[in-house]
Protein 1
Amino acid sequence: MPDLGAFLAMGGYAGYVWSAYAITALILGLLVVASLRARRSMRSSLDEAEQASPRRRAR
Amino acid sequence: MAKALHRLANPARFLRIASPLLPWIAAGAAVCGGLGLWFGLVGSPPDYQQGDAARIMYVHVPAAWNALAGYAGLAVASAIALVWRHPLALVAARCIAPIGACFTVIAIATGSIWGHPMWGTWWVWDARLTSVVVLLFLYLGYIALLHAFDEQETGERAATVLALIGAVNLPVIKFSVDWWNTLHQPASILRFGGPSIDPAMLLPLMLMAGGFTLLFAYLVIIRMQTELARRRVMALRRAALAVSQPGDA
């Protein structure tokens, strides 16, 4: 394992390299969380709508 | 092939096939991304000209490739929706758009961060950078048109036409670095004569590209599951309304 301080310093480009990776991780992370949350809430709406449906179909 | 695609275009069948694939796609994305990060940040040498700043490549290039490939997918799905009127193609297109827009934002942001130490500026309005900004606006315009009309179908038709016209921008982006003078470096992977990049840098780049692509696919399937559920909710509510107000339908 190379020296941790040197690794974090990124040859003097630490601010650039780490901010690029952080922005990427942030956007992708938010996108995954938002997509999973939207699916969960839509699935519970679907359950409700199917319960309330006059012609309940077994699926 | 056409027949197989047609069969897959049934929403219920699509869900039956795609849903069990999801954990595998997620696992593949995590493994590729993890290995790509390790080789990209630790296991590969710094660039002989750019030093460690070149490591920004391992997030910038995969994001840009996926932004382009996503738009190609959006255009193909829109063409299928227009010609064969497959509802599933519209669902796919609608779900690709926000993901593609996010990948485009990542490509632009990381490219700008990379540009500052290398070019001495965060931004120039040259052909490559400008055509990628146009790509972002095509994605955003597509999303805006979808929601711009009371009648969902009107919005879908307008957005589909925009998606197809916007496909002209894809070759412009790809070849912008050859056709015009630009600060952006020319292609080093998909070029005549093979890749011009060291294998030690090609490995993390390909791992990250694989990881980003699998993540894109994962997000498309999640959002398509959501959209198909939403359509079923709408249909059930319409049916319930028709029963409660029989004279009104």
Protein 2
Amino acid sequence: MLENRRFVIIGFFAIVGLIYLARLFYLQVLDESYSIVSSSNSIKRVIEIPFRGQIYDRNGKLIVYNTPVYDLMVTPRKAKVEDTLRFCRVLGIERREFDSLMNVASVYSRNKPSVFLRQLSKEDFASIQDVMVDYSGFQFVKSSLRTYTAPTLANTLGYVSEITKKQLDAQEEPYYRQSDYIGQSGVEKIYENELRGKRGTKFVMQNVAGVYKGPWKGGELDTMAVAGSNLYSGIDLETQQYADSLMGHKVGSVVAIEPSTGQIISMVSAPTYDPNILASRFFSKNYSALVRNPFKPLFNRPVMASYRPGSTFKLIQALVGLQEGVVTPGSGFSHANCPVGCHNHAATTSIALGVTHSCNPYFYHLFRRVIYNNKISNTFKASAAGLEDWHTRVSKFGIGQQLGIDLPSERKGNLPDKKYYDKIYGENAWKFSNIYSISIGEGEILITPLKMANVAAIIANKGYFYTPHVIHGVGDQKKLDPMYTTRRETNVDARHFAPVIEGMIGAIQSGTAKSARIEGITVAGKTGTSQNKKGDDHSIFIGFAPVENPKIAIAVFVENGGFGGQAAAPIAGLIMEKYLTGKVTNKALEKRMMELNLLNKVVLTPEQRAMLKSDTLRKKAPESNSLLKK
Amino acid sequence: MKEKPEGKPITKNVDWVVVLIYLACLAIGWINIYAAVYNPEVNTSMFDLSNNAGKQLMWIGTAAILITCILVIDYKFYETFSFIIYAIVIFLLVVVLFAGSNINGSRSWIKLGAFSLQPAEFSKLAISLAISKYLSDPVISLNRKLKDYYPIIGIIALPALLILLSNETGSMLVFASFAIVLYREGMPGIIPAIGMIAAALLIITLLFVKWYIAGVIVIIAGLVIWLMPVMTRRRGGLWATILVAGVMIGIVFGVDFFMNNVLQKHQRGRIMVLLDPDSDPRGDGWNVIQSKIAIGSGGLTGKGFLEGTQTKFDFVPEQSTDFIFCTVGEEHGFAGTLVVVTLFVLLISRLVILAERQRSRFARVYGYCVAGIIFFHFMVNVGMTIGLMPVIGIPLPFFSYGGSSLWSFSILLFVFLKIDAQRPFTLSRN
């Protein structure tokens, strides 16, 4: 009897064995989920962020590069700070800050390192690394910071900052992660994909405490990080900084273009700021100071600010008139029968003299002929048809549309057409007498400084232009989008430019733009005065030099600067001289322009005035990146 | 009575099936200990004494010496000196209470230089020998006289109490394995059945509402009382059934008391985790979850030798000792675990077969003791790594790292093989 119990016992063993095998088969073969958990347990994807591309000026000078900085990381579990007071003193932080930083890190993870202090400079790193040896659980991780060789070009270059929540959500393919850096404006934004390079991905193994345990599968799935492409710009850093200094204490823009290529030589948005202050660990503090500043230093005026072109627009009117054939170079108009006033000047018996003296009635009559240059007897219908023709011709100059510069947020401005006036007055309810103010660049026309500089380039080229661009080469092969190498025609015959340029030379030599004269170089130019209801008129100048072989075309806009000849023309002349000869002869003018302060003429709202008092930008030096208080 | 053949090798008549399985277990165990402690940064060899694999090899070597001694010593020594061996182990257990080193909260180790010895490991051998010796008296009957159980209870209870005092509960639970041998020797089947039902009730009670369970028990008891006379044409089961049902309901309502007052906090946690590991994934559930991840991620053929990320990077605790089975599962997959489970089932079955062919009751009882102990260790150890048993810190025989455990299992096994080898020369006494 009892012997038979062995079968029960062996049966019991066998059943337990079978149950275990069934369980193991389920766990190991049928249920896949454990493999996934196991991988996520021990295999971590580490992203390696390469250096951003550098940016060079037209002479090969470095404008933007990367400085290695050090992020101080903390692993809360390992962190031992016995002497908190000394620790805080070394790092230049307060006890309260220490506690909150420590708390943030602990909440993230007690075992994994997280950022304690961001972007310590090399100098700070050197000065504190010896002391930090005494504190376990802290380590330095190298990262990089955008650094600018000169405190200029802030708005053109743009800035790089941590990606926003909105951008993070909006990205089509998940490239960026939280706390990644991304170009937020200017060239940094437009060329983000080229500048950022290619990220490396490393698969590493980690143990239960999150400690690095070597590459996974010997690194065979890893990809190397590839540094971002360098950008080559047409900016002349020296001219740029000189233009900056001339535009000090003023609100306005300078845009200088190389007519033969469309490359931007200089682009000033005044007032400006040192781009380095937005590439530091004080980003948010400095950024909000810039946002609060009533003069809106973050507003990229060359491409975003719209003005009435004033008399500078007469150049386009003259060219359109000549091309339409309504005038000849020898056509003359008197001041008679004209609703627009003029100043006292010699008789304008030719196009050239009309330009030289910026004669308002001359262009009133010219524009009238352009508008009525058809056989329609109804003046309303004739005006409409005439405006449409005119609009087509002027559009060819890039007015009223985006030129396509490689900068974000370029404004179209406004070039009124039939539809525009129909909306205001009703169809067939307006005629020339309603719209004549655009004949002299007033009224409804709005343009940006960039577009006016481009007009100067068109005249310098006698009829064509290349789309203005800041960057003319990407990467070692210096690749360039074909849209920047395609010649764009204005369909105005080259022969029509001679009388206009003659008038512009006249304006420099004896007309409204005398203050832009350069010793020994023939300059062509035209001043403009943009009427401003809110305050003093804006001073405008466009021109190019040397006339024989134009190297630089320029537009200068000085807000509240008065007549074109008062501020814009002398500044333009000085910049062109500096660019063409490398020096400036008229030191007295240079000094006067540099010291000219027009900020007090800017009309501000009471709130903006209040902000002005707390404005840190002008009164105090920008917060430096240095950790140690001097 | 017997003739010890002079000049014959000591290995004569030793059961080679068991020896081969034993050697296979040692080899696989040693390789997996190396994998468990393998650190890619500090690449030490399998033979380096600074790591557990190297030390285990040394323990295996010393075990070989022990086995040789066992095979050389006359087989009658074990029967004759069984109570004396028992007495020595009891003495050591008392000594360790006062002079033991405290390792992981249990005062159960005697330090000998760099190595530690755990007397509790040898209590299994001592109890086995003592029970076998006691049961070898042919007048002892387990299915008739209750008083014959008292000495057995005493033999088990004395070391159990001492082990309990040294806070080594896991080793004490192993003594439940003696139920197998007692069952074979005539203990009524109802006793292990009650034990299993009680354990099952404990689990069920923790999962369901007590009143429902009590209701189900009452209904089943009613059915039994109503149907039994019909089915078996027998009466008298009424009171027995009511008694059984009453005891079961008592257990159901006693569970809370047992959980809260008898068990320690960590033991309670381990039982709760068995039911739902995710209830405390970072605490008591950690071992079970990580162990299941390790084994589960092995797949059919495993990640390969030294490629187990779960074990290599310390996600699984106690990898070279109690959780060695995880390394097998992760690096060698279902193929590996199939081999190990099969080896154990074969070994235990073979031991039962060997025990059954013994002529002396002493030898048979001892054989069953060995089979039961190894089986219990296997069941609990492997069961806990796959989430079928609560976490009880007992080693996997021949696999887990550790000198005490390897020595005690080797001695346990080879004493039986020695006795078995002498079987042809032994007269049956019962």
